[in-house]
Amino acid sequence: MPLPDTMFCAQQIHIPPELPDILKQFTKAAIRTQPADVLQWSAGYFSALSSGDPLPVKDRIEMPVATQKTDTGLTQGLLRVLHKQCSHRQYVDLADLEQKWGKLCLPVEKFRALLQLDPCEHEIEWIKFLALGCSMLGGSLSTAMKHLCEILTTDPEGGPARIPFETFAYVYRYLSRLDPEISVAETEVYLSSLKDSVESRKNGMIGLSDFFVLRRKM
Amino acid sequence: MPRNPAGELPTPGNIRPGGAGGRSQGPEVRRRAGALAKPARRSSEAGSPGGSRGCWATRAGAAGELCASPSQSSVAPTSCPGNFPSRPPPLFPSLLASRNPCPWHHVNLSDSHDALAPTCLEAKLHQKRSGSTPDVASRLTDRASWTMGTYTYTSRPRALPCQRRRYRDGVIQPAEEPMPYGNIMYDRRVVRGNTYALQTVPLPGQPDSIEIQRQQQAQKRALARKRNREQLRPRTPEPVEGRKHVDVQTELYLEEIADRIIEVDMECQTDAFLDRPTTPLFIPAKTGKDVATQILEGELFDFDLEVKPMLEVLVGKTIEQALLEVMEEEELANLRASQYAYEELRNAELAEIQRLEEQERRHREEKERRKQQQWDVIHKHNETSQKIAARAFAQRYLADLLPSVFDSLRDGGYFFDPIERDIEIGFLPWLMNEVEKTMEHSMVGRIVLDMLIREVVDRRLTMYERKEDKQQSVQLEAGLGGAEAARGSLAGPESQDQSTSQSQRPDRDSLPRTLPEGRYTEITSSQERELVEEEEEAVSGEVRKSLGREELSQ
């Protein structure tokens, strides 16, 4: 019996079968990510969904939400999202990055301020930008390295958060070069001491416990 | 005893004219049985109708067989001999025919229907003559008497039980009538073997029926066996095309076959069996009145209004579900994260524990090593002190020994001077030899001188003698003794010289020898004394040195 064109009752309203699932996933993502501007974030979400890119969704809900009033508004979760979206390329386009930054409801001024630390033309090496973001998250260098380790690691959350020592040394050199107070020799000495301890114990992977506790002790 | 002796006993002498049981037997049967003296079966068959004349009219099958009987050509000659031509013969061949049914009896039934009429009449006549049905009564009495143990036969007149049907059902199904008569050897009333087993008398009612049943079954079995035998027998072949078998009476007297069945063919046609058609949809009868009105688009259905509850459900459910799921997943992730964190912590602690254990182990080992070392040192110290004590004791013990040992050794001549010894061994013999040589030379010279002197003396003597001779030629005879005395005087000094030289010689030899020897001994003794003194000094110095060393070491 063909459905008549005109509708007479509510039972005739047809709901596409994919809709509830999409809606649910979207709701979950929104709950989890807690964007400041839901509309803007939704635009980013659905564009990423339609183009098949990694979604701008946090893996875990972050309870102390950055308010963008007192701090930068950037959180580790957001950086993680950005890393998920951009890490497949070594260099990222600045415009693209800014767009993604904006989709996460982060202020563009902060982005500019971040880039002023290491000014570049059109594209930036992703690991450097990540390092800059990490340095923006927490005050000290070791805290920044801790965040970096937690973002870059493939270990499960709460685990030892190990990353290759080469990456660690690269980022550490980069960040310490930006800081005028730390001399190059000091950095090298620190890295070499770490390298010895790391390579003797675990096949070139440096974990969170290797430098963070050590630094705290000092 | 058989209940029908006339039927079962083969000899005519045994035939009882039915007095006691009131049995009326047809005279023709009796006569025929007596004449034929046939075996029990046939005669019993012949006898049974004789004993049950009254039943003949009611029995259809028997009649049919009766009329079929003339066709039995095989029986007819034997059973109908010319012994009794006066009597109509069809009775017992027909009975025989009933035992041996022929496939084409059936066909001829209707034909022989008319021919039966006289025999039926006759049977009725016989029945009247007998006037009773003795069989049933006799049977009853039989049963009673048998159970009592002694056999008495009483039989009331009675009708023969209707045992034969008028019509046979078919060729395959011949008459299943119970055998009224049987072999005496199978009669259960005839006791065979031990009669003690029969003392236990069964109840009057029950075993009888069982017995009857068994008997009937046995009869049925016998019939079936017979039927099988008959079926196995070759039959008349099928008629050729267009012909059919027809019964022909070969008897001397034709009989009308009376019990022919009148057949009429009727037909009846029913409709074909059709499927039931589907029940049409029930439509109730229309009630009410039709009224029409016009409804414009959107008047009845407002999408926004209608969709609202659905949307509420959708959104509400979605959000609820999403919240739940997020909570669940967050919880799980938290659990997992804390688990990993704990595991990490535990790993670190394990590593720390291992490290501490290792350290502890190293400490313990170090302690053990040091203890061992200390023990070794103490041992060594003890050993050394004991050694030193022993040494001191030995020295003190040996201190008195040394001089005496040296004295005895010196006395034993173990200490000597090599120069002295060389002089003693090498120089002195040589010196002695040389001295001896020089002495020899001087001796030789002295001897030579002696010889020269002697020569000279001799020569002067001779010369002197010559002169004497010349002077004392006269005195020659007197001078002989004088010469000899001169000669003796001459020899005297010589021997004196020799003896003196000989006596002087050892003196001369001994003197220089004793003199240097005495000097030498003096010299050697002084030398020896010096050497001994030197050695003593050396030994005392050594002892002093060693003592000093010991004191130092101590």
From TrEMBL, chain A:
Q: Which Gene3D superfamilies match?
A: cAMP-dependent protein kinase regulatory subunit, dimerization-anchoring domain
Q: Has the keyword DNA repair been applied to this entry?
A: no
The record's subcellular location field reads: Cell projection, Cilium, Flagellum
> What keywords sit in the KW lines?
Cell projection, Cilium, Flagellum
Report the GO terms under cellular component.
motile cilium
Establish whether keyword Ion transport is in the entry. Answer: no
Tree of life domain: Eukaryota
* PANTHER family xref list: ROPPORIN-1-LIKE PROTEIN (PTHR14952:SF14)
Give the family, as the similarity comment puts it: Belongs to the ropporin family.
Protein name, as recorded:
Ropporin-1-like protein
Automatic annotation (TrEMBL), chain B:
The family assignment reads:
Belongs to the flagellar radial spoke RSP3 family.
Q: Give GO cellular component annotations, separated by semicolons.
A: cilium
In its UniProt entry, the species of origin is given as Rousettus aegyptiacus
Return the Polar residues bias intervals: 495-504
Q: What is this protein called?
A: Radial spoke head 3
Coiled coil region boundaries: 342-376
Looking at the keywords, is Phosphoprotein present?
A: yes
Superkingdom, taxonomy of origin: Eukaryota
Q: Name one Pfam family in it.
A: Radial_spoke_3
Q: Where is this region: Disordered?
A: 1-54, 211-241, 481-554
Cited InterPro entries: Radial_spoke_3
